[in-house]
Amino acid sequence: MEHTDKYIKEKHSIDILKANKFGIKILLITVVGALLLFYVFWPNSFLTKLSNLINPEGTWDFLGGIFTLFIVLVIGVIAHELIHGVFWALFTKKGFSSIKFGILKQYFTPYCHCKEPLKVKHYIIGAIMPAIILGFIPIIAGLMYGFLSWLLFGIFFIAAAGGDFLMINLLRKEHMNDWAKDHPSEAGYYIYRKNV
After folding, report:
1. Angle, nearest 10°, between helix axes 59-89 and 120-130?
2. What is the rounded distance in angstroms from the CA atom of residue 157 to the CA atom of residue 192?
3. Residue 78's CB: how many other CB atoms inside 10 A?
4. What is the pTM of this model?
5. Where are the domains of the chain?
6. What gap in Å lies between CA 53 and CA 136, rounded to an integer?
7. 182 pairs with which residues across the strands?
8. CA–CA separation, 46 and 37 (whole Å)
9. Tens of pLDDT along 135-189?
């Protein structure tokens, strides 16, 4: 990026509560859509698989399933932030050393922060990749191979990308070659437009 005095700097914030509500809406839409598609592709096994998820054969199976689910979701949340970092690092001068991870304590929300400005198009790539890798790909694989657990995993991580989708929705209105920089302490970013 060139010197910032050649740019107009503008702050854009994402409300975490709004992002969570948006995530719930996405969750509902994705659940209905994905489960309907699963039923269309796998009508004979849908009810059996759903029944096995809801009513396991014993208490230990149920507790083991809950524990496994918890571990998978924790690993998935960590992977979500790592994917942001890996893809943003591809477009920075300093690579992965420009990436910072942490937790917004007031909301107990993990985050990935890029310390360097990125072109809007590169920022969007890094923002969308967790939803693609952890959400859309598992849903498609679950539909193709009849794995309801993959489908449910993908649904969860589509919903978890609610804040990312809100950010992308704001950024898509910007010029793709302008610069965006993560806000260091809030959910949001600064946009740098050329001062003409």
Report:
1. 170
2. 30
3. 12
4. 0.84
5. 4-194
6. 21
7. 189
8. 10
9. 999 999 999 998 888 998 999 999 888 888 888 988 998 889 999 998 777 778 8
